[in-house]
Amino acid sequence: MKTTVYQDSISALLAIVGGITVFAKLESYSWWLIGSWKGALGVLAVLGLGMMLTNVQELLKLADGAAITEFSLWLVAATVTIASLFATTNKAEFLWSSAAIGVAWLAQFSHYLWHLLHTPPHHYSPAH
């Protein structure tokens, strides 16, 4: 897995902003862009796209079972979110889409952590 700490930090930051967006909408905050269910879902869709794009190179390789699962989860999240945006978006569709994006991101991040913790460090000896 070749994602960097920088890419995963961006992904985590986007996930935090997404969590704040979900919380704010469920608590009836009327911030700009999240005043309606469709607007809040549009914000989540953009954040979810950003999360997915931080790992798109690894995602498209489909190198192992975890990567295939991760790809499938992002595909489901995108499908649910796009379908909800084209429908009359309500609270239930917002929650389903939020959950799908959250699960896809958790799969992406846990895949990164698994590789980080189970890949032995490379030890290079300097040339003399």
Give an account of the 3D structure.
The structure is a single chain. The chain has helices spanning 5-26, 37-53, 56-61, 65-86, 91-118. It is mostly helical. The chain has one domain. Helix 2 packs parallel to helix 5 (91-118). It is elongated.
**Share of β-strand residues:** under 5%
Structural class: mainly alpha
Overall geometric form: elongated
- Mean pLDDT rating: 86
Unreliable parts: none
The count of helical stretches stands at: 5
End-to-end separation: 31 Å
Number of domains: 1
Sequence of secondary-structure elements: HHHHH
Helix content: over 70%
Number of strands: 0
Q: Quick one: biggest sheet?
A: none
Alpha carbon gyration radius: 17 Å
Please give the structural blueprint.
Elements: H1 5-26, H2 37-53, H3 56-61, H4 65-86, H5 91-118
Helix pairs in contact: 1-2, 1-5, 2-4, 2-5, 4-5
Features:
single chain; 128 residues; mainly alpha; 5 helices; 74% helix
Summarize the structure.
It contains 5 helices and no strands. It has 128 residues and is mainly alpha-helical. The model has no long low-confidence stretch (mean pLDDT 86).
